[in-house]
Design a protein that fits this description.
The complex is a heterodimer of chains A (about 250) and B (about 70).
Chain A: H1 2-36, H2 38-65, H3 68-94, H4 103-120, H5 125-152, H6 158-179, H7 188-210, H8 220-248
Chain B: H1 2-13, H2 19-38, H3 43-68
The chains are: A mainly alpha (about 250), B mainly alpha (about 70).
Chain lengths: ~250, ~70
């Protein structure tokens, strides 16, 4: 029950985070494909996936050599930094303090930038376009790899968590191939809010375990932390929105 | 060299976007670590510092962001 609870929350976090990252990578790859065709877009994306695979294969066995206590502490701190960064941004976006991420706008901006590069230097464009696709897949993919490793560290759930992340990436790639448009209707901020809450909860749990804290209820504490971060995040949105409305009136 | 620096900056950016938030989180973690080192018989103190510290840091940071606007 406890193992499945941990695996379930880790898989959910990895699936939702991978959805967000895959949608962002797809936007850039599509922009490259629209401006320069599928060849540089596809080659760049494949090169990004190959580099990611090399990183995973090279670093994976090294992680097994790090003592669990240090691994928990390092991953916990990185998860806190990563998760709370996402949660902060999602709160500010939900409260209207910063604009929502707009995939259609990101697509338009990337397309315009590639066209401008084409105007300046048409011969190098295939190379630059492929590089843009490569960078998008590599950077967003690194985030997915980090999240998968972080939420499954030392718990023997790496395979189901990886499968959840892979399913999300394949789902987005499939939809992207079918619709040939950026997935602007994905509720990205809601997903980021949820993932920020879950990663922050995992980060808190791991960091505490790294310091030798025996959390009450063991793995069940993660659910309590999720509830606390969610409650705090929603309260912050409500508070900020109230002040924003009061300031406007 | 420029490309490498840009890539490194993007990598760091995965974890650090708002410097004040990152520093505050690190400060909470260091405090919790000190509590764990000084009072190994009371690890709950370290846990409480982490839990309430992180929640407090989050609230204070978004409020500060609101005031900055």
């Amino acid at each position: 029950m406890i193992v499945s609870l941990h695996a379930g929350s880790a898989m959910t976090a990895a699936f939702l985070a991978s959805l967000v990252e895959a949608v962002e990578a797809l936007t850039i790859v599509l922009a490259v494909a629209v401006v320069r065709g599928w060849r540089p877009a596809g080659l760049g994306a494949i090169a990004g996936l190959v580099v990611l695979a090399v990183i995973v294969v090279a670093l994976g066995p090294l992680l097994d050599r790090v003592p669990l206590h240090w691994l928990q502490l390092a991953i916990g701190i990185l998860l806190l930094l990563f998760g709370m960064r996402w949660l902060r941004k999602a709160i500010l976006r939900a409260a209207g303090l910063i604009p929502l991420h707009d995939e259609a706008a990101a697509f338009a901006s990337e397309t315009a930038e590639l066209r401008e590069q084409a105007r300046r230097d048409a011969q190098r464009l295939d190379w630059l376009a492929g590089l843009a696709s490569f960078k998008a897949v590599l950077l967003e993919g690194l985030e997915v790899v980090f999240i998968v490793i972080a939420v499954s560290a030392g718990r023997g759930v790496l395979i189901p968590v990886s499968a959840a992340a892979l399913a999300a990436c394949l789902l987005v790639a499939l939809i992207g191939l079918l619709v040939h448009r950026p997935l602007a209707r994905v509720p990205e901020n809601m997903l980021k809010f949820a993932v920020g809450v879950m990663l922050s909860a995992f980060g808190l749990f791991w960091t505490g375990e790294g310091f030798g804290v025996a959390w009450p209820g063991a793995d069940l504490a993660i659910l309590a932390f999720i509830a606390l971060f969610l409650g705090t995040g929603l309260a912050a949105v409500a508070l900020l929105s109230c002040r924003e409305a009061a300031a406007a009136s | 060299m420029k490309a490498l620096a840009a890539s490194l900056a993007e990598l760091v950016g995965l974890f650090v976007e708002d410097g004040a938030l990152a520093l505050a989180i690190i400060a909470v973690v260091v405090l919790a670590g000190i509590a764990a080192a000084l009072g190994p018989a009371a690890p709950w103190l370290s846990g409480c510092i982490l839990l309430f510290g992180c929640l407090g840091v989050l609230i204070l940071n978004v409020m500060k962001a609101k005031r900055r606007r």
